[in-house]
Structure formats: structure tokens, C-alpha cells
């Protein structure tokens, strides 16, 4: 990696300007400012140029870069494109929770000479603002890592362009708003819930509004259902939650995938069963983004079921509840034949990323003891956060800091003893902001606490490592309490900025020492957000293999790769995934048939 010499802020040019500081490179040549179109798709990963990185030197949108850090800062997304040997830069300004179009000044420094250019920035739909991602460096145009990044960036830019071209042809249905779960009687837990067995179906219906892409354009499914079913929370109490069932055209009722969405919120109104419907609140856009992965599974002919695994009170981070709700959702799905047509002997697999992977991994750990009768072929998990204690330290003061107050509220709902502890340490000035996370979803939480010192909002910032109640709860929700007996495909970015890869490595080692079967892939060309997409095709290929009864070699394997996109299984799957997504977008019935 080239050494980067920083130019002092005092020497920076005036006006809203971003500096691209050039590292000394012997073969460096003068480069002009990029003036082409600006791409701003959420899937578009961020890649700096050779030796360049982005620095914000003035107030930008929703906040300021007081520390002079590089990469994304409040109100600004610096998006880099790896094509042309990583020599194109794009800077787009976004304000969290809004859509806007604005010109920006882009500067490039070489030998203390600045060039500036006005770039007209396309309007950025709210659905495109997914995660802030931090900048890293390109080493050289010939490096394998650079090649992988170039391939990824090029593929995503092409995908974005095709999606944009197809969008005008979409039939745009009137936006209708389903009732939020907190006001919908369907979600109410029956008073006699304790008399039902785990997985028992309590009531069912068709979703009030159509399942839709980004809450707007309906997905052409053969059928969809909502099932309320009985489950068990982390303390052993009976409760109920909701399962969404999606049936594609040409479905195989003997193939079921339980997909766990990364909800990451402490409001019941962020539940996937609500957020995936047309007309749902915009705050659920991150849930809606995962519809792209769900559609890829539906195109295999699998019936996809999605549990509201946080339960009716949105107990975010209560992982035992999440795992049990996932398993009980599978029980309910297999018992729903008269309603959904799913066969009771169906082959079942599980998939989830980030928080969805934690729910999936906990389901895998609990499976032998909580639901041993279920025959589960395997599970694909990615971006796990096995050690929440370390996640707290890693995400504080960063772009994912909004996860922390939401996690506190979710755990307080599940563990009453925690409420008094939080009340004792939380400073009065921040109580209202923390309480607000009970009524909003991840996007709003991310905006509210973006790069904030959340731990500094407590009188003792280190209380989560010393208070016995907190330490006990964090130990209880750590992954690795038991060993899965089903095959796992595990994928993780080595640069994950939410949860250190070492924590996942440690759980992998624990599993393998106890005889688990795990294929573990560590990806070097991604970060937490981008790995959700770059790792998905290979995960889908693995799931397809186990769903079709393919043998999985017992034992463990660990691979560190430049990018999962370079694997041959990805090469075979990815073109079909992109083509299906485009055809679905323009109205093709979702499923393994082209028309009908």
C-alpha cells in the first residue's frame, strides 16, 4: 500500500470541496477530473483510485467531519469506481432519509495544484441509500485484488444501468398503505397463547397489500400468505409472531427456504411481514432491499418463508428468541399444507446475512435440542456478529453506531433487569433519542446516530464490560453456545467494520473442534455491506446443491479468497440471477418459468 501524505486542512481550497490526496507513485501521470455520469446504486461498492482517497474539508449535509477522517461522513457518500485501473472518482451528496439532487465540487491534488469541476449529481432515490461504507485503497492496476474489485464494480454499474433503463417500463400501481403491526389486530398475541404448541398456526391471511420491490412495484408471485404462529422467547415464555410465505410460479412445494431478513430495529413496525408489502413505510427500505436476494431464491422454484424473528415486541439482539422463532416458523410452514400447499416432508434450508445470519446461526445451534424433528439440509450464513461486546466497541463513533441504541432497546424488552442498568447510566440529555429508536427503523437510527459517540452518552462508557447484569446478558447472546449438526456455508468479509472477522474465526474454530461441518469463505475485496451482495451468488449455489440432495463433505474447510465473485460457482449462477431480476422487474412471473 502506498504511503499517503496528507495536506493540512488549513491549506485546503474554500467552498464545499472534497480533496483527493495523491500518494507519491513513481509512475504517476497527470489525470483529468472525471466528468462522466455519477452512479449511486446501493449495491455499488466503494473503491478509491490508485493512491487517492476522499476527504471532506467542510460542513457536509447532515453533519461535519470534525476529526478529518477519510471515507463517508454525515451527509456525504464518497463512492469510488474501480474501472480503468481505479482512476475514476465519483462523489455524491445524500442526506439520510431524503432524496435530492445537488452539484458538488470535486478536486484532485497533484504537486499542490488543484483542479475543480462541477458534477451534476443524479437524484438519489431513498431506496438507493443502503449503508455507508468506508474507503480503502487500490494497490496497483495489475493486482488480483484490483482485478476483483474492477469486476465487481463493473458488474454492479452495468446492473444499475440496466435496472435504470428497465424502470420506466414498469407498471406503477397506486401506493396503498397496510396497517402497521402495532395497530393491526392480526399481530396481537392471543391471551391463551400458552395452551398452543411451538410452531402451531394461530391464524392466517393473505397479506393486506402485495409483496413489492422497495415497497412500490408488486412482485408477480403465484401466492403469498401470512401465518401467525406460536413460538418461545429467550426466557422461555410463550409468544406469537408472523411468518410470510412466498410461493413462486412453478413452485416445488417440497423445497422450502427459510430466509431471515436483517431487521436491526427495536420497533414492531419494522417487521419484515410489514416492510415487504407495497405501501409500507419508507423506513423499512433496508428490509425491502433484501427482496433482491429473496427473488433469487424464488427463481429456483423454492417456497420462501420469512419469520418476524424479533417477535411481537421487536426484541432486537434477543438471539435465542430469534433462533427459536426461526425454527418454529419452519414448523408452521410444514404444517400449513391446507393453506400454502407446502408439503410436510419438504426439504428445508436456511439463509441469512448480518442480523439475519445471527438468527439463522442461532437456529442451527438450537436445532438439535429445540426442534430435533426438523430435517434441515443446511444453512448459509454471512456477515455474522458473534460477539456483541466487540460489536459495541467496533461500531461506536462509526457509520453503524445507530445499531447500538436500537440493540439496547431490544434487549431491555427481553431482559427486564437491564432496564434499571440503562436508566442508571444513560445521561438525561440522550434519553429522548434512545427512546425514539422504539418507534423507528434502521435507516432512521443510522441517521440519528451516524458517527456519534454512543458510549459517551452514558456516565460510564465502559459499563458494558464491567456491569455484571450487562456482562451476563452479552455472554448469553454470544454465538457459540452449542454446535450445529447441519452443514453450514459461512461467508465473511475480512474487512467487516461491524464485527471483527476474528470473532467469526473463533466460533468457526469452536464448531470445528466439536465435529461440525462448515465451509468457511473469507472475502478480502468486500466490507460488511458489500459482502451481502458479493457473497450471495456463491451462497445461493451452495444452497441449490444441498436443496437438490447434493452431498456435503463432512468436516471443515477454510478459504480466504480475493473475492467470492471469482469462484466458478458464482460465475455459473450470477448471470442467471441478474437476468431473472431484470425480467422480474419488467413483469415476468417470479419463478422458474419464463411466462405464464
TrEMBL record:
InterPro entries: AB_hydrolase_fold, Lipase_secreted
Alphabetized Pfam families for the sequence: LIP (PF03583)
Entry keyword set: Hydrolase
Keyword Hydrolase included in the entry's annotation: yes
Biological processes annotated in GO: lipid catabolic process
Keyword Lyase attached: no
One term of GO molecular function: triacylglycerol lipase activity
Domain of life: Eukaryota
Protein name according to UniProt: Secretory lipase, putative
Source organism: Cordyceps militaris (strain CM01)
Amino acid at each position: 500500500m502506498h504511503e499517503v501524505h496528507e495536506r493540512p486542512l488549513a491549506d485546503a481550497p474554500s467552498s464545499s470541496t472534497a480533496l483527493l490526496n495523491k500518494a507519491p507513485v513513481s509512475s504517476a501521470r497527470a489525470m483529468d477530473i472525471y466528468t462522466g455520469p455519477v452512479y449511486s446504486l446501493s449495491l455499488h461498492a466503494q473503491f478509491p483510485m490508485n493512491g487517492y482517497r476522499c476527504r471532506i474539508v467542510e460542513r457536509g449535509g447532515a453533519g461535519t467531519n470534525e476529526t478529518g477522517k477519510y471515507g463517508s461522513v454525515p451527509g456525504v457518500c464518497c463512492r469510488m469506481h474501480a474501472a480503468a485501473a481505479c482512476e475514476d472518482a465519483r462523489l455524491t451528496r445524500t442526506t439520510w432519509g431524503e432524496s435530492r439532487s445537488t452539484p458538488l465540487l470535486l478536486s484532485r491534488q497533484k504537486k499542490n495544484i488543484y483542479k475543480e469541476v462541477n458534477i451534476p449529481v443524479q437524484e438519489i432515490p431513498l431506496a438507493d441509500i443502503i449503508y455507508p461504507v468506508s474507503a480503502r485503497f487500490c494497490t496497483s492496476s495489475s493486482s488480483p485484488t484490483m482485478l476483483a474489485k474492477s469486476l465487481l464494480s463493473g458488474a454492479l454499474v452495468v446492473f444499475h444501468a440496466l435496472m435504470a433503463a428497465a424502470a420506466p417500463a414498469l407498471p406503477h400501481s397506486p401506493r396503498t398503505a397496510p396497517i402497521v403491526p402495532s395497530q393491526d389486530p392480526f399481530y396481537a398475541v392471543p391471551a391463551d397463547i400458552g395452551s398452543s404448541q411451538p410452531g402451531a398456526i394461530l391464524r392466517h391471511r393473505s397479506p393486506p397489500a402485495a409483496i413489492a420491490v422497495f415497497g412500490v412495484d408488486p412482485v408477480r408471485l403465484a401466492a403469498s400468505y401470512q401465518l401467525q404462529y406460536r413460538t418461545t422467547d429467550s426466557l422461555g415464555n410463550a409468544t406469537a409472531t408472523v411468518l410470510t410465505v412466498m410461493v413462486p410460479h412453478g413452485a416445488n412445494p417440497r423445497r422450502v427456504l427459510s430466509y431471515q431478513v436483517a431487521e436491526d430495529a427495536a420497533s414492531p413496525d419494522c417487521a419484515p411481514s410489514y416492510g415487504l408489502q407495497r405501501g409500507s413505510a419508507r423506513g423499512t427500505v433496508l428490509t425491502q432491499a433484501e427482496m433482491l436476494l429473496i427473488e433469487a431464491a424464488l427463481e429456483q422454484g423454492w417456497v420462501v418463508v420469512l419469520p418476524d424473528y424479533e417477535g411481537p415486541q421487536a426484541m432486537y439482539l434477543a438471539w435465542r428468541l430469534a433462533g427459536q422463532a426461526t425454527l418454529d416458523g419452519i414448523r408452521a410452514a410444514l404444517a400449513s399444507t391446507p393453506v400454502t400447499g407446502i408439503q410436510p416432508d419438504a426439504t428445508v434450508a436456511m439463509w441469512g446475512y448480518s442480523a439475519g445470519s445471527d438468527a439463522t446461526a442461532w437456529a442451527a445451534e438450537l436445532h438439535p435440542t429445540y426442534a430435533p424433528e426438523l430435517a434441515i439440509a443446511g444453512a448459509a450464513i454471512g456477515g455474522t456478529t458473534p460477539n456483541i461486546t466487540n460489536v459495541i466497541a467496533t461500531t461506536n463513533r462509526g457509520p453503524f453506531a445507530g445499531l447500538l441504541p436500537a440493540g439496547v432497546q431490544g434487549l431491555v424488552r427481553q431482559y427486564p433487569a437491564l432496564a434499571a442498568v440503562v436508566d442508571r447510566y444513560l445521561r438525561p440529555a440522550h434519553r429522548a433519542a434512545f427512546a425514539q429508536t422504539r418507534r423507528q427503523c434502521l435507516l432512521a437510527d443510522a441517521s440519528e446516530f451516524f458517527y456519534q459517540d454512543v458510549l459517551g452518552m452514558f456516565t460510564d462508557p465502559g459499563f458494558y464490560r464491567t456491569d455484571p447484569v450487562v456482562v451476563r446478558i452479552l455472554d448469553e447472546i454470544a454465538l457459540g453456545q452449542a454446535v450445529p449438526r447441519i452443514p453450514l456455508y459461512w461467508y465473511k468479509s475480512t474487512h467487516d467494520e461491524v464485527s471483527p472477522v476474528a470473532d467469526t474465526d473463533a466460533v468457526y474454530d469452536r464448531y470445528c473442534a466439536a465435529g461440525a461441518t462448515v465451509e468457511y469463505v473469507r472475502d478480502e475485496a468486500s466490507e460488511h455491506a458489500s459482502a451481502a451482495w458479493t457473497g450471495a451468488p456463491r451462497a445461493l449455489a451452495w444452497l441449490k446443491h444441498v436443496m437438490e440432495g447434493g452431498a456435503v463433505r463432512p468436516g471443515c474447510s477454510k478459504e480466504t479468497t480475493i473475492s467470492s465473485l471469482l469462484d466458478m460457482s458464482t460465475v455459473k449462477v450470477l448471470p442467471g440471477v441478474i437476468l431473472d431480476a431484470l425480467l422480474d422487474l419488467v413483469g415476468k412471473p417470479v419463478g422458474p418459468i419464463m411466462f405464464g
